[in-house]
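Protein modeling request. Please complete all fields; requests missing the sequence field cannot be processed.
Requester role: graduate student
Desired output: 3D structure, token encoding
Chains: 1
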Amino acid sequence: MSYSKISIKEVVNEIDRNYYLPHIQRSMVWNEEQIYKLYDSLLRGYPIGTFLFWKVKKEYDISKIKFITDFTKNKQSETSTDNSKDEYYLVLDGQQRLQSFLIGLKGSYNGKELYLNVLCENKEIYTDEELIYESKFIKSKEDVIFENNILWVKVKNFALLNSDKLFDYVEELKENYNDKLLGSQLKLLEKNIKKLNFICGNDDIINYYLEKEDNYDKVLDIFIRTNSGGTKLSKADLLFSIIKLRWSNEDAYTEFKDLLNTINNDSFNFNHDFILKTCLVLIEKDVKYSVNNFGIQNISLIENNWLKIKDSIITTIDLLKNFGINSKRMLTSNNAIIPIIYFTFKNNFKSYTSLDKNNLLNTKKIKKWLLTILITNIFSGQTDELLKRFRDVIKNNSSLEFPLDDLNNSLPSGKSISLNFNDFSKINYRDTKHFLLLSLLYPDFNFSSNNKYSIPHVDHIFPKSLLKNKFSDSLINNIGNLQILSSNDNETKNNIKFEEWINTRDETYLNKNYLPLNKELYKIENFEQFIEERTKILHSEFNKIINSDNL
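Delivered output (551 residues):
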């Protein structure tokens, strides 16, 4: 990889003329201390990292946004409408550093401008955390502030001056403070001002790699891989930025944000990835996260069907809650509900609350299919392929009945909806499926309570503290050693030996918690046999539930 060099001065002077940011929802995230450290690193002569610029041709139709010169809290960058350049550069890596240079050299931070203590002296007596060259954002009408034997000078007044103007500036400043500073301090003043000015104009400071790739998808991948600072971004976040640009009638950002707030409601964790993937499935296009799949035609289809898309998503989420799946702990795969949303969308279903016989049959089939898909972890791989297969089945279904059997028969080789005993016995406390499985086995508990003291707990029947160093973690955390207890019972049980605690329960407790009737198995020395026997009981009960007409 070949790098080129350019000066801070040259880049800053061309910001929002030749240098822009890719259009993503991303604000300035560096705080004042981070900016101070950047300027201190410059003056110490430390490297400030490499930069990555993308050379973009006008015909790419890639939107660009401006840097923020005068930063205020929560201020977002504006879209640039300047299309006069045949070529321009997008900053893929280095946004925060260039933004900090622009603010310090030409702008402001929350109404304050950057000043440098020009009497700082590098004596090499410091710790790594200390700043040698002090800078500070100050709100003042004065260009120079002298206080406590510190001379603060506004950086933007000298950092980018040419040599002639810099000489005049320094001489005038020295003359103004000749009677207040020692000769050594006047020399230090001149040295520091000229040093920062030289650094800003030095072509060796910014080392950058210029990407000339025409493939936008590849460039997005490069951006994600190199963009390690600030807010993490996914490819879906970047693709969403394209939608925002091409969404004509409404504010896409507000529409997506409002929908996510509605369906998450502090319970789930749906994000842009989920919404975008759902949109591609519903408009019956290729489901891959690709720039080509978010061209003007597809975005227009999404926008024209947005109300129906949104209603179908909300209707499906409401159905989940009716099933008792009301949190991200139970919904182990967001993608698993996309086929249900498509079924809802295709058939124009507005609700699943009707007592109509066909509707009741549909909800029963949907619930059975979804629970099976979640418990068997079907969506652990081949997501796009599964979504295409399931969409084709639903699309070709001529009736309004949920095609449960056809969906199950459409699984690719290696995927199975059967949860045999061997697979079931591998489920443990660290497995995302354990909570959903237990919620099915313990239907009498209220898993959606807003009262933290009423929320049921997942409890280890044989306390972990008594099993540690005697049995493996996989056995201790096995599904056979897990049960649901009320918070009060769990706190009461604490670390009491199970063979002792069971004597405080009545006979109904044994059946409700699927315990082996042989009480010899309640002793720690028989723990392995207990796990085997109880897991058999749980597996048998799960099969009864999943195949029950009353599911």
